[in-house]
Specification:
181 residues; mainly alpha
Length: 181
């Protein structure tokens, strides 16, 4: 192999690594955005459920309004639980991957287990890492986390919509003079 072919291979490898790193960064930004949105929505839903409980359930004798307030509170609590699943994923993202003999070195996301506390051992692992495979694995793992967060966030949005719809109906019904007794 001549020097020009070696430079071309190195250039292709560098381009691949750059593309993988950019894709991984984009995926991680999306994950952070889901976490932020879930946190904000859960805070707002907590406020809505608290206001419902204080305003309707504690001070109203109308059975219909109390039942609707209870439905709104329960759907709001379910939505908050779903948002919790967005913020704190419960499954190992490595599940379901066919690694085909590839064993991640753990050099991209470092875990401080006993073997990595020694700097020289960690440096050796970094030097032996197949970065294309390592970044590809991390990208697939992050994409799986992103997809799960998307699924739970979508479900939480549906439950939030149910909550807000019931609250809107509750407010309209509460505004009718015959229902305020």
């Amino acid at each position: 192999m001549n020097e020009e072919q070696t430079k071309e291979i190195d250039s292709d490898n560098q381009s691949t690594l750059t593309c993988l790193q950019n894709a991984l960064n984009e995926t991680q930004e999306t994950i952070r955005a889901y976490d932020t949105k879930a946190g904000i929505l859960s805070a707002l839903l907590t406020l809505v459920v608290g206001i419902i409980n204080y305003s309707f359930i504690t001070s109203n004798t109308n059975v219909l309004l109390n039942v609707m307030a209870l439905i709104a509170s329960l759907s709001g609590l379910i939505a908050i639980g779903l948002l919790g699943a967005v913020i704190f994923p419960m499954k190992d993202p490595r599940e379901g991957f066919d690694l085909s003999g590839f064993e991640p070195k753990g050099t991209y996301y470092v875990s401080l287990n006993d073997s990595s506390k020694k700097v020289s051992a960690f440096v050796d692992r970094v030097k032996q890492t197949d970065w294309t495979a390592e970044l590809s694995f991390e990208l697939l793992k992050s994409a799986k986390i992103r997809d799960r967060k998307h699924k739970w966030f979508k479900r939480a949005l549906y439950m939030s919509a149910v909550t807000l719809l019931v609250v809107a109906i509750l407010i309209v019904i509460a505004g009718i003079p015959t229902c305020r007794r």
